């Protein structure tokens, strides 16, 4: 199974087009969107190429391959433009190796084990995949694996725009020029 992860598109058509091209090249079976899909949000500057209707039209062409969760900038109005569900706060995917992949944006649930209110109840070895911080992460964190594909549109912390891949029991965060930014092997 090969999965492609993206987060924090924030309505930018240019970045979303670049992400879709990478998804197609990857040969992944599913495109996992970890929230903040159409809206730029009140704390972010308007991204160059901001065109949420065009982003929705492009993503709708891949609706049968998309698994998505709601970000803090996503709303029912955004859902009205999309042909695939985005309003779930989380989703669980069972991987062939028996691990669970907990998908969330990161504003409600996250990998902070010191805050039991925000930390999902998972089994050791499970993966928490989230966006929200716009920072790429692929690393063990306590009994879990923390994974964040970074941001397609508004990278932070000096990082470049990025996406994630799960292939052959390895989670990787990749730049759009093909460089691996970080990875973790799922033993």
TrEMBL record:
<keyword id="KW-0479">Metal-binding</keyword>
<dbReference type="InterPro" id="IPR024654">
    <property type="entry name" value="Calcineurin-like_PHP_lpxH"/>
</dbReference>
<dbReference type="GO" id="GO:0016787">
    <property type="term" value="F:hydrolase activity"/>
</dbReference>
<feature type="domain" description="Calcineurin-like phosphoesterase">
    <location>
        <begin position="1"/>
        <end position="167"/>
    </location>
</feature>
<dbReference type="GO" id="GO:0046872">
    <property type="term" value="F:metal ion binding"/>
</dbReference>
<dbReference type="InterPro" id="IPR041802">
    <property type="entry name" value="MPP_YfcE"/>
</dbReference>
<protein>
    <recommendedName>
        <fullName>Phosphoesterase</fullName>
        <ecNumber>3.1.4.-</ecNumber>
    </recommendedName>
</protein>
<comment type="similarity">
    <text>Belongs to the metallophosphoesterase superfamily. YfcE family.</text>
</comment>
<dbReference type="Pfam" id="PF12850">
    <property type="entry name" value="Metallophos_2"/>
</dbReference>
<dbReference type="InterPro" id="IPR000979">
    <property type="entry name" value="Phosphodiesterase_MJ0936/Vps29"/>
</dbReference>
<dbReference type="InterPro" id="IPR029052">
    <property type="entry name" value="Metallo-depent_PP-like"/>
</dbReference>
